């Protein structure tokens, strides 16, 4: 539940694990490519072009003041907090995977307590339990 809550809070914005998003612009001539200015095309100020999310337009900035932190020190602190939250989420996901593997191994050991004939198909690894093939036995 905590993993789901963290995912809903973070939305994986600007996650370090995934590759950069590609925003393609298409042009007819090379002259248009050379004269292209991304800030005017996206209708925003040049300082906010690097933002992946929450990139307000010039009209929005004229209507209302910029909300949120604008101080570089405060922005750095917020970025560090976001990085810590992503690290916590990553640790919890890895822990959940490890616990799932341990639960599978325990279940396999319980299944091996049966007296039925079994053949080992695959050895146990750190990421998966051993796999056995059991002889079919009709239950009466």
Automatic annotation (TrEMBL):
This is Probable U3 small nucleolar RNA-associated protein 11. Its main location: nucleus. It holds the Pfam family Utp11. It comes from the Eukaryota. It is found in: Nucleus, Nucleolus. Belongs to the UTP11 family. The keyword Transport does not apply. GO terms for biological process: rRNA processing. GO terms for cellular component: small-subunit processome. It comes from Colius striatus. The keyword rRNA processing applies. InterPro entries: SSU_processome_Utp11.
């Amino acid at each position: 539940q905590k993993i789901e809550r963290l995912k809903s809070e973070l939305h994986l914005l600007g996650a370090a694990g995934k590759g950069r998003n590609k925003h393609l612009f298409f042009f007819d001539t090379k002259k248009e490519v050379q004269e292209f200015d991304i800030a005017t095309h996206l209708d925003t100020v040049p300082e906010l072009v690097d933002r992946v999310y929450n990139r307000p337009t010039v009209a929005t900035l004229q209507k209302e003041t910029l909300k949120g932190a604008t101080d570089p020190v405060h922005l750095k602190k917020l970025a560090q907090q976001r990085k810590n939250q992503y690290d916590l989420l990553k640790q919890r996901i890895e822990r959940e995977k490890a616990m799932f593997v341990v639960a599978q191994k325990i279940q396999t050991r319980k299944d091996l307590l049966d007296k039925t004939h079994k053949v080992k198909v695959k050895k146990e690894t750190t990421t998966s339990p051993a796999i056995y093939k059991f002889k079919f036995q009709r239950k009466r």
